[in-house]
Design a protein that fits this description.
Aminopeptidase; 8-stranded mixed β-sheet; alpha+beta
């Protein structure tokens, strides 16, 4: 999945690399997730330039409807550090359009992403998830993530202190 020609087709979905032309749909889905209050400490999606600058170009994918071409979800990774020792460690985010949740879009995205991460030499994929986001935690655990711990009262979100569950998936291929 490392190049622009690579795609994965699953039950009416095309998992493909994210393009600049996807910006509007990607940011709309991001904002919809932020609006739930269960996805992130962020409250506003960044500009496309801010999003683009913060994500690794080779580890950004969308799930598009094969018939309409509409973006139904996205997944992307950011480096956790610029230090060479952490070159194979990324933090990822996955967001699915509210009308498409619980239909396998997130699973398809995460499955394709993990394969691409292995191919790219990533040995650790990590994320922080609010404990109330049970669907995300269940999906990640089903695909090999483990809970590392809980950071209690890590930050305030909408006036409430929030815990964050730290999860990670260690590659069986890269970094072994």
């Amino acid at each position: 999945m490392a190049d622009e020609q690579s795609t994965q087709r699953l039950s009416g979905l095309e998992i493909r690399p994210m393009r600049a032309s996807d910006a509007g749909e990607v940011l709309d889905i991001y904002q919809a997730g932020l609006d739930t209050g269960q996805a992130s400490f962020e409250t506003r999606a960044p500009s496309w330039e801010g999003f683009d600058d913060g994500k690794l170009a080779h580890l950004r994918y969308v799930a598009a409807d094969l018939e309409t071409g509409d973006v139904l979800g996205w997944i992307a990774a950011s480096p956790v550090s610029a230090r060479p020792a952490y070159a194979g460690v990324v933090e990822h985010s996955v967001y699915v359009h509210p009308g498409c949740q619980a239909h396998g879009v997130g699973r398809a995205l995460l499955t394709a992403f993990l394969s691409a991460a292995d191919d790219a030499g990533v040995w650790t994929v990590q994320a922080g998830v609010f404990p109330e986001n049970v669907a995300s935690l269940s999906l990640h655990q089903a695909l090999g993530f483990r809970v590392i711990g809980v950071r209690e009262r890590l930050g305030r979100h909408r006036g409430v202190w929030r815990d964050v569950v730290l999860i990670e998936r260690r590659s069986a291929v890269a970094g072994t």
